[in-house]
Amino acid sequence: MEKLRTVRGVHDLMPDQLHKHNIVINTGLDISEKYNYSQIEIPIFEFAEVFTKPLGKSSDIVTKENYVFKDRSEDELMLRPEGTSGAVRAFLNAGLVQDLPQRFSYYGPMFRYERPQKGRLRQFKQLGVECLGLSNFMSDIEVISLGYDFLEKLNISDKIELKINTLGDFDSRKDYRAALVNYLKDYQSKLSGDSLKRLWTNPLRILDSKSEVDKKIIRDAPNILDYLNFQSKTRFESICKGLDYLNIKYKIDKNLVRGLDYYCHTTFEFITNELGSQGTVLAGGRYDGLSKILGGTDIPGVGWAAGIDRLALMIENKFVNKIDVILIGQTENTNFLLLPIMKKLTQKGFKSEIIYTGSIAKKFKKANKMKAPYAIILGEEEINQNLIKFKDLKTGSEELLNLNQAINKLKK
Ligand code: ATP
Ligand code: MG
Sheet of 388-392: strands edge to edge? Predict the structure, then answer.
């Protein structure tokens, strides 16, 4: 029979991999909590407009990468491609606009119909943080610092570079956009198809193009930093200053943009060259217009999302299934007597397993294969005396003990 497959770009996580994912997740949630970000959980699917409204009809996520479907009541739903829209929607629905700022963290699966490759999946996980209600530049520094500490806790910050840029405020961006279009329109015959389409709809996105020809053209494009008005410029300088205070190294990358209309001011990415071309492990920015687009009050926000799958590829922690004690009965009937023993061991915090079948010799062989340090053995003699045989599987030494004595030995 043919084996059942999983969908392309959608993977099982077996213990080895899940172990690494969980380390990434726990580290991220833990450091976020220390920065006073409280964890929330939002739905994996929502009405499609939660994503289409803010992301815009021209974004990749909405045009090419989305998983949309109609349910039985003909509602148009979407598997979430990212976390920020849902988090801001949840914040608005919870009526928290009177109680600012709010700081949230979340993690979970996201879905994008992408071309699968290393570090690029169709179902992947993100861990993100959102700081809502603060327009002060200090909050931009705060989230970048949180991102950096997260990577530092994972012991990978030395393999990662921080790139940072600013898109300025609305006015600065408007001037820049005009200058950029003016520059790019001379290259219309050379630009890639995608970029050509964006020239009039979303020209800033062209700066983000992966096409080599586009990249060459972009190299000499006008620099956003030359178009910042005074407020936008001093804001950006203050953020850089904050990073200096934290000793966080960064590179200013004038072409670092987030392609969505509601992004403004700070954009940043933490990038590694250890993962081939999928090197961005954590990316974020300021998104002041988002809550208004979602139909709520105008609330500023800044945050980031990290790719858990990519980070998990970078950490070295190995999964070891270390068992404390193996339980062996002489006959299958003895297994019944092992049940309450196992229960007691579990309550005391020990990991154990009963080997149900096979000869005694086979059971010991299995216990050795599992690298168990100890075995508890119940034979006729032990049952009669209401004791257990406690065996050190390394030295081979055995003693007759009651269960409490055995537990005390395990504790050592
Ligand atoms: P990319 O340029 O790699 O497509 P993006 O700009 O689409 O990234 P964001 O939407 O900013 O990515 O998502 C934040 C992070 O989530 C990325 O930096 C990356 O680590 C991770 N990520 C995004 N898409 C995928 C995917 N398809 N598979 C695995 N991780 C992903
Ligand atoms: Mg993408």
Answer: 352-355, 325-329, 374-378, 388-392, 398-401
